[in-house]
Specification:
The complex is a heterodimer of chains A (about 120) and B (about 375). Chain A is built from 4 helices and 9 strands, in the order E-E-E-H-E-E-E-E-E-H-H-E-H. Chain A has about 120 residues and is an alpha+beta fold. The longest helix of chain A has 7 residues, at about 25-30. The radius of gyration of chain A is 13 Å and the shape is globular. Chain B contains 8 helices and 19 strands. The radius of gyration of chain B is 20 Å and the shape is globular. Classes of the chains: A alpha+beta (about 120), B alpha+beta (about 375).
């Protein structure tokens, strides 16, 4: 699992090559507070690194999540539409945002491992 | 940037684990560990304690007594202050010569003076405005703390601390004796809940706050939930929903302009901007502040532009998620011919047009003890 400075986590899928699942960290979920709405990208969309692709709304404010790397959205988390609070309850699990097909997995090398991320926050 | 000020409760906020943010020149708690959602709901089901000590507390006296001070204040606000009875409070507005709004405030009539509570961001300007406009009055800003205790448990909790609180009605003001000195209490607030605002000597504020928080069901509430609570109650946030460009009529706060100050009243006009305000009352304004409900789940916040087809008809001035109504809610200004309840509009959200309906406010009925 890798972590970005924007507090996203990226988990390469074991069963599907070049696909990573993306969500936000516990730290980020806690900072955002109670999440009431998540707007996800369309499946099949091609995204470039740092495109704004997810909007997270808490009671207080809206925040944007950027694409961590270039890729194609292969799946978004359907559960978040009815239950956006999953991001607060289980940010590293049931609160995932989308799965991204990445052409070049070495793009993930620049990101932090868990120990480095813990130090970062 | 000048240094941020702290209220007498700063130490308590930090001890309670609040996240502090800059607000109107003060370091204020935006939320406590409970979080905005649960703080909001705790206020609606039990009681919430708010530190509003950043707001300006101003006493206006005149050697001719409270009646003379009231007559003076009527030259600056479109409210009936002369007719306000001893021990009563009402919502007021400082108007500008162009008919816009300089600030909104609470005006309490006491036996010997007037006691005003004004917005933190405007308080220095308000003080100067009062002193300039009321040269015969003594106008003093106090350094007392101000707490708000809001919610269904507020009456019982405050009565235990300050006997006499339960006998008050909505918008009554009274001096109540307590272990924390004389409290200046009004049965009012800005959440749509029954409750009180309590002015207390700065040095006793923390002890009072601790005593109130000790009661079962009382939670500290930060600015985040204060905003969602007042939004559900349909109440305006000055600087967002009201400002120098919005008149009281456009701002849909005409209920706060009593008949005696309107055309045909005994003391019609006589406040800054009266020409425009009375003209808009007798005719109609070009736009109106309305309640708005997005049909989808996506909140529409301040700045979202509103359309009817290709025609731009207005803009949202406050919006977010209402934890008690469990849906996004907003208020904003729309052209008068699109301000009718039930009008269907669209909000432009991140490049998409999403449906939003004009609705009656408040979004949640108030529970005041009248």
């Amino acid at each position: 699992m890798k972590f970005t400075e924007q507090h996203e986590w990226l988990r390469p899928e074991d069963d599907e090559e070049n696909v990573v699942t993306v969500g936000i960290t516990e730290h980020a979920a806690e900072q955002l507070g109670d999440i009431v709405f998540v707007e996800l990208p369309d499946e099949g969309r091609t995204v470039a690194k740092e495109d704004e692709i997810v909007v997270i709304e808490s009671v207080k404010a809206a925040s944007e999540i950027l694409a961590p790397v270039d890729g194609e959205i292969v799946e978004v988390n359907p559960a978040l539409e009815d239950n956006p609070a999953l991001v607060n309850e289980d940010p590293l699990g049931a609160g995932w945002f989308f799965r991204l097909r990445v052409e070049d997995m070495s793009a993930l090398d620049e990101f932090m491992d868990e120990a480095a991320y813990k130090k970062f926050i | 940037m000048s240094e941020l000020r702290r209220t007498p409760l700063y130490g308590l906020h930090v001890e309670l684990g609040a996240r502090m943010v800059p607000f109107a020149g003060y370091e204020m708690p935006v939320q406590y560990p409970l979080g905005v959602m649960r703080e909001h709901l705790a206020c609606r089901s039990g009681a919430g304690l708010f530190d509003v000590s950043h707001m300006g507390q101003i006493v206006v006296t005149h050697r001719g007594g409270a009646a003379a001070a009231a007559a003076g204040l009527e030259t600056l606000v479109p409210q009936d202050v002369i007719g306000l009875k001893d021990g009563r409070q009402r919502y007021g507005l400082f108007t500008a010569p162009n008919g816009g709004i300089l600030d909104d405030l609470m005006i309490a009539r006491r036996t010997d003076d007037l006691f005003l509570v004004v917005n933190a961001a405007c308080k220095t300007a308000d003080l100067a405005h009062l002193r300039h406009g009321l040269p015969d009055c003594d106008v003093r800003m106090l350094d007392r703390a101000l707490l708000a205790l809001q919610g269904p448990l507020a009456e019982d909790v405050l009565e235990a601390v300050a006997p006499g609180a339960a006998a008050m009605r909505f918008m009554d003001v009274a001096r109540l004796e307590s272990d924390f000195g004389t409290l200046w209490v009004s049965r009012s607030g800005y959440t749509g809940e029954d409750g009180y605002e309590i002015s207390v000597a700065a040095e006793a504020a923390e002890r009072l706050a601790r005593a109130l928080l000790k009661a079962e069901g009382v939670e500290p509430v930060g600015l985040g939930a204060r905003d969602s609570l007042r939004l559900e109650a349909g109440l305006c946030l000055y600087g967002h929903d009201l400002d120098e460009s919005t008149s009281p009529v456009e701002g849909n706060v005409l209920w706060a302009v009593q008949k005696v100050r309107r055309s045909g009243g005994d003391r019609a006009g006589g406040f800054p901007g009266a020409e425009r305000v009375l003209r808009e009352i007798d005719g109609q304004p070009s736009r109106l502040r309305v309640g708005l409900v997005p049909e989808g789940r996506a909140p529409m916040r301040e700045g979202v532009e509103l359309f009817d087809g290709d025609r731009a008809v207005g803009r949202i001035t406050s919006g977010g998620f209402g934890p008690s109504v469990e849906r996004p809610i907003a208020m904003g200004y729309v052209d008068i011919d699109r301000a009718g309840i039930g009008t269907k509009l669209e909000g432009s959200l991140r490049g998409r047009r999403l449906p939003v309906d004009v609705v009656q406010m408040p979004f949640r009925p108030a529970t005041y003890k009248r």
